[in-house]
Amino acid sequence: MLTKKEEVTENAPVKRKKSILIIGGAVLVVFIIFLIGSLGGGQDYISIVKNGYLGEYTDISVSELLEGYYAVFCEDIKWDGGTTDNGENVVAFYAESESLGTTKIQFKMHDDETFKVSAFEGDGIGSNTSEEIKFTDIAALLNFLYQYNKLQGIDNDAQMEKIDSLDEQLSYISGSSVLYGASEDYSGDRSKLCEIYGDAPLDMSAKDMVDYYMDE
For residue 183, is it within any domain? Predict the structure, then answer.
């Protein structure tokens, strides 16, 4: 639900036939091959990612963000990590369910402090067609998960006030910033993590991105 369509950059999400599928049962195409599996080691990097933060969401760790949602629907949650044949350090989050299959989110380390979401497979995002999954699709899901977590345990009377507060907060954050993360002790500017990778922030706020995908 964008107010000015002409302001959306070429990196903005393409309108889907359906809104975000919140554990909708549709298995999505893997657009980047996962490099975890039999890899060993990576325990330090696992801790850095789990205890770190995505984008500017420094009030909820990566593990809290993901586990707080997927643990509700999946029977088995686990983390893994290691080094690829190309020397890249990677960490992966797995959420497995007999009925819904497996969701995987992979993070690639840039250095000992910063990382980026590099792959996704599973439920809960985009359209039920076979279209290629975009990074903007993943960003929309992760922004939604932040909202979901922040609204848990709040009674109905307080939820509307909290939603208004969240909307204001997310209106000042780029929708793509959630794709980049850093350790809990990172002292740099978290709003500019994308610049480490030579990327520009998406010209769409996190609020507009979630509204856009949720709009029927």
Answer: yes
Q: Is residue 7 part of a domain?
A: no
User: Locate tokens 């629907």: which residue?
Assistant: 73
Structure tokens at 174: 């780029």
DSSP 8-state assignment for residue 174: B
Average pLDDT over residues 150-168: 82
Whether 1 is covered by a domain: the verdict is: no
Q: At what angle do helices 206-214 and 156-170 cross, to 10 degrees?
A: 120
Q: For residues 194 and 205, what is the distance between their CA atoms, to the nearest angstrom?
A: 15
Q: What angle is formed at CA 152 by the lines to CA 172 and CA 103, rounded to 5 degrees?
A: 85
Range of the domain at 83: 15-214
Tens-digit pLDDT profile for residues 174-215: 999 999 999 999 999 999 999 999 999 999 999 999 888 876
What is the rounded distance in angstroms from the CA atom of residue 141 to the CA atom of residue 179?
10
For residue 136, name the pLDDT band (cuts at 50, 70, 90).
confident
Residue 30, in any domain of the structure: yes
Structural domains of the chain, count: 1
What single-letter DSSP state applies at residue 149? H
